[in-house]
């Protein structure tokens, strides 16, 4: 459905449905706030199953890394009696670890989700909570990811909707290619200026 530049498409509806499923699931199983799962579902939901699976794999690696380091953070902070200095220095250090490990694993597309998972879990754990609370938040990210991927498995776009999504993807790709070309030109220009300065 389109009204001028505004469009209500299948992906929009699936995103809202993913959030709704997280809310219902967490209410039924009394898991507390569904914030982390709902965010994970939204991050994982892509225009089709293939893209969701590709992104989902990257997201699962990111969740595992971010969640694992959040548990390390929780244990170290607990060891130092919730000292502010641990938060101040350890958390930024763990962000560096996430980036270095993700890059080393060639999972650059999962860096943002890994950092988001690390920060969401680390900064949302109330003082005095147990290790199991932190572990539950890690599990929440997996629940949300599987809800996002599952929706794309069960609800597939109609051919017209799929064609429109492909057109949007191609337009986005063309935009990125243009930005890349402009960046290459700037680099070449700076290189020429540097070479001329050396002469």
Automatic annotation (TrEMBL):
Coiled-coil regions, chain positions: 163-193
This protein's UniProt keywords: Cell membrane, Coiled coil, Membrane, Transmembrane, Transmembrane helix
InterPro entries: ArAE_1
Any one GO CC term of the record: plasma membrane
TM region positions: 60-76, 83-102, 108-126
Highest classification ranks of the organism: Bacteria, Bacillati, Bacillota, Bacilli, Lactobacillales
Chief localisation class: membrane
Subcellular location: Cell membrane
Topology term for the membrane: Multi-pass membrane protein
Protein name: FUSC family protein
Organism the protein comes from: Candidatus Enterococcus palustris
């Amino acid at each position: 459905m389109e009204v001028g530049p505004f469009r209500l498409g299948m992906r929009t509806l699936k995103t809202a449905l993913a959030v709704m499923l997280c809310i219902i699931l967490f209410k039924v199983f009394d898991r507390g706030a569904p914030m982390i799962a709902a965010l994970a579902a939204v991050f994982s939901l892509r225009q089709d199953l293939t893209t969701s699976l590709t992104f989902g794999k990257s997201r699962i690696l990111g969740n595992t890394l971010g969640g694992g380091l959040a548990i390390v953070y929780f244990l170290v902070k607990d060891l130092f009696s919730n000292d502010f200095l641990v938060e101040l220095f350890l958390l930024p250090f763990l962000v560096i670890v996430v980036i270095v490990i993700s890059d080393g694993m060639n999972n650059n597309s999962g860096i943002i989700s890994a950092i988001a998972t690390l920060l969401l879990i680390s900064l949302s754990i109330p003082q005095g909570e147990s290790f199991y609370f932190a572990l539950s938040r890690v599990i929440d990210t997996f629940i949300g990811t599987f809800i996002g991927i599952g929706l794309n498995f069960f609800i597939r776009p109609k051919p017209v909707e799929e064609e429109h999504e492909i057109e949007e993807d191609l337009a986005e790709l063309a935009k990125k290619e243009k930005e890349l070309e402009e960046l290459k030109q700037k680099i070449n220009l700076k290189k020429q200026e540097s070479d001329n300065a050396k002469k």
